[in-house]
Input
Amino acid sequence: MAMFENLSKRLEGIFNNLGGQGRLTEEDVNAALREVRLALIEADVNLKVARQFVDRVKEKAIGADVMGSLSPAQQVLSIVNEELVEVLGGVEGDNKLNLGGTPPQIIMLVGLQGSGKTTTAAKLANYLRKQGQRPLLVAADMYRPAAVNQLKSLGRQLTIPVYSEAAGADPVEICVNSLDYAREQANTVVILDTAGRLNIDERMMNEVINIRDRLHPREVLLVADAMTGQEAVHVASDFNQAVSLTGMILTKMDGDARGGAALSIRTVTGVPVKFMGVGEKTDALEPFYPDRLASRILGMGDVLSLIERA
Amino acid sequence: NRTRQIFGRLGNAVQETDTITDSLWDELEESLLGADVGPSTTLWLIERLRQRVSDENLQTGSQVQYALREELSTLLGKSSSLRFSKQSPLTVILVIGVNGSGKTTTIAKMAYRLSQEGHQVMLAAGDTFRAAAIDQLQEWGNRIQVPVISQKPNSDPGAVVFDALQAAQSRGSDVLIVDTAGRLHTKFNLMEELKKINKIIQKFVPDGPHELLMVIDATTGQNALLQARKFAEDIGLTGVVITKLDSTAKGGFAFAVADDLGVPIKFIGTGEKVENLMPFEPQNFVAALFA
Ligand SMILES: Nc1nc2c(ncn2[C@@H]2O[C@H](COP(=O)(O)OP(=O)(O)OP(=O)(O)O)[C@@H](O)[C@H]2O)c(=O)[nH]1
Ligand SMILES: Nc1nc2c(ncn2[C@@H]2O[C@H](COP(=O)(O)OP(=O)(O)OP(=O)(O)O)[C@@H](O)[C@H]2O)c(=O)[nH]1
Ligand SMILES: [Mg+2]
Ligand SMILES: [Mg+2]
Output
């Protein structure tokens, strides 16, 4: 909503009304942080995560010396931005896949229905092949109509092999069998495309737990839609509890979603965002950089570059 | 179900307080924000309720809760069923939305429902882009015994729709439901493609499409409103379907969407099976927030 489109303007307004001379007072900071909290929620950060975040910012902001060249509003924004980058993984980030050890290494993709798992599986295979790996895709979704064909068709486009079994096969067995196949074919990395499932669907959650227990995947990645709202925390913590996530991939970042869900997921699970999906094509995958998402969540690349120049 | 707990707690807290306290307002705000109602709508609602408290001299928490339910229902508008053509023997339903929201599945569910009611339904496989999207619709068609008109992958979706309109007319179908590829509302070319499909339908049936339904995933947050606005602006909407309400998400964006665009919510999806589609009931939707 237009109301929150320009956080920096709103903050300027607040500081103009308040004293805010020389040093940020608690009163200034409280008023500003209410705006920040609402802006975060507008960006789909979970409200509890937003409150926790704002509390951390508050400690740093109160009493901070106002730098000569920055207005109090810019000062608060820069503290908010720094803290966001920090929580999202630091300036360096942590976007590397962990695939060392004896091949084949296994990557399992999990997530809600329609989040982008199958497409991301193909993108990842494509990405890893460019890095010299020999990927095998595994079609472990036996529920969604034509899910196997979808993966096969993507595999064909990329000339990357897809392991699949006939209708009626058990997803856990498919995954187990795919490993034998991968060893035979000297594949170095196996990517498991699992069916979409709700975190509250016990039977379906048991299925991914079984796959995890039988195959011990090196990477268990939650594929999450950048447009996800407040539910992201529940989804992430339930999946994390069930299968111990090692990372997440944020899809559909080519739209105009702010992507605050990533902050929620990162906060409740502690796992890093490893990649972003930025389109429907099989090459539309980018490594994740915390600073980019931070300014997107705040909706203010412009202001941040202002601060950098100051 | 945690979100429900928040509201459950609210329900209790509200009933237990006989006075209207600051913490009641805080809790209200939290509950609405936590259900994806969004800051703007939430702040507006709270403001409105505060006004009512003073205008109507409301005294207790439960009075406030009752007033909130009223306000929420008003935002949603009336329930509304599918619109059929009065002029032409063929009713055309165009289904649109962002990627993965549940369009194809919802189409299968609607087709199933309509054929159970005695309609002769046909489906058009207008998503020629996504891998195996055609196969997916065909498999649904087989399951529910509804014919699917399709062409090869990557062919022109407009041509598929044209074919399907002809086939529906010549075979005497009375409902044609058109599946389209998922598209983010920010993609200019894809939105133009949709306008083209819309025009082809209008050439065939001048009063069509009789429904332009946008499918939104209940787990979506505040982006839902941006999506709905852009789709409404570019080609118009006659209704919204909210899918995946079997999740723990509340779909609170629905209030802003319905109010802002004046477009009714027609159905909700509550699972992956063909039976899991229900007509939208504003009262039930609001009640679910407090369940
Ligand atoms: N624009 C865009 N679309 C994407 C992206 N990733 C996936 N999609 C699209 O999102 C839709 C759903 O993707 P799928 O890969 O089928 O999702 P899924 O998680 O496998 O779905 P289920 O198997 O049904 O749970 C498709 O239309 C994809 O093309 C992305 O990064 N950007
Ligand atoms: N739990 C649940 N899953 C649903 C519901 N509706 C659809 N799905 C699932 O969501 C996923 C995506 O559904 P699709 O119908 O393929 O979505 P779509 O909008 O056609 O996707 P694209 O064509 O790729 O844009 C599938 O796994 C469906 O089974 C629902 O009401 N509840
Ligand atoms: Mg899939
Ligand atoms: Mg589809």
Notes: The pocket of guanosine-5'-triphosphate (ligand 1) is lined by residues A 111, 113-119, 141, 144, 147, 195-196, 251-252, 254, 277-280, 284; B 99-100, 130, 182, 184 (CB under 6 Å). The two ends of chain A are 29 Å apart (CA to CA). Chain A has a mean pLDDT of 90.
